[in-house]
Amino acid sequence: MGAHDRDYMRRDSGWRGGSAFWLDPERIVWVFIGISTVLFLLPIADRWGVFTSSGMARGELWRLITYQFIHGGLFHVAMNMVGLYFVGRTVVSALGPTQFVVIYLAGGVFGALFEWLLQSAAGRPCAIVGASASLSALMFVFVTIQPRMMVQLFPFPFSFTLVKLAWGFMIFNGLFGLSSLASPVSAGTTAYLAHVGGALYGIVHGKYFRQRILLPVIRITRTSKKPKPTAKRPAAAPNPTYRARPGQPNVIDAEFSDSKADYNEVLDKINREGISSLTPAERRILERASENLGKRND
């Protein structure tokens, strides 16, 4: 698999008609935020969009999707949209808009089914609204990408690794979800088990359904001495050599407007810290390399 086959080194071929729109990491996230906001302002959406046990019994499978964009109150929609803005943009930057859409929708579906199956097994009805299961899927995909990233949560004065925070999330929601199976049925309760289901989908997607972000370590050097250029024989481009990481394929060579040293430094940084750690200037170097690769392969 060449560099042009990787998510961060090519255009998203699934949306060629509007590539400029989909390449902007923030646009697709704002589309989802806009859908949730509009539906929140339309009370009639609650009647047709909420995921319910009775709806499943009637075969209304569209509710597995629509409930993800419906919220129970101003605080509920505000918190979820803030989370979607930050987590969603991070996932889009790392994996692209198409995978963001798949993770969001599939995580929400899996979360609702997980809650519904366990509640039904306990003989209880369920009704779910909100993007929380979808957000859980997005968060846990990123946990599989950067498990050792350090994060700090207000008001705690110390930091956690993402993987430890993920364990805390799963334990908290798992315990409250299981306790809810034995508690009286009441309106407005949190769908903790849907959070767990979305998180489980995020782990599975991150480990098995996304392309790995790590690049081979690349060094471009001359492998042999070349004759001096003359008027009849211009200088030839240096022959590249590659040193791939174990288990990782080589990538194709390309002509880049930036210096080879700058490009190599960007690749090394991605290997060490992940693609989300790049500065705007480093991203521009990667984007120019992607454009050159596209010109060679279109």
Structure description:
The protein contains twelve helices and six strands. It folds into two domains: 3-209, Rhomboid-like fold (Up-down Bundle); 218-226 and 233-297, no CATH class. Strands 1-2 form a two-stranded antiparallel ribbon. A two-stranded antiparallel ribbon has the order 3-4. The chain has a two-stranded antiparallel ribbon with strand order 5-6. Residues 1-19, 212-224, 238-257 and 294-298 have low confidence and may be disordered. It starts with 18 loop residues before the first helix and ends with a helix. With 298 residues, it is mainly alpha-helical.
Structural class: mainly alpha
Q: What is the succession of H and E elements?
A: HHHEHHHHEHEEHHEEHH
Report the average pLDDT across residues: 76
- Globally, the shape reads elongated
- Please give the radius of gyration in angstroms: 23 Å
Q: Unreliable runs, pLDDT <50, ≥5 residues?
A: 1-19, 212-224, 238-257, 294-298
- CATH fold annotation of the largest domain: Rhomboid-like fold
**Strand residue content:** under 5%
Biggest sheet descriptor: 2 strands, antiparallel
The domain tally reads 2
**Gap between N and C termini:** 16 Å
- Overall number of strands: 6
CATH superfamily of the largest domain: Rhomboid-like
CATH-level-2 architecture of the largest domain: Up-down Bundle
| Helix share, percent | 55-70%
> What is the tally of helical segments?
12
In the sheet with the most strands, the strands line up as 1-2
Q: What would CATH call the class of the largest domain? A: Mainly Alpha
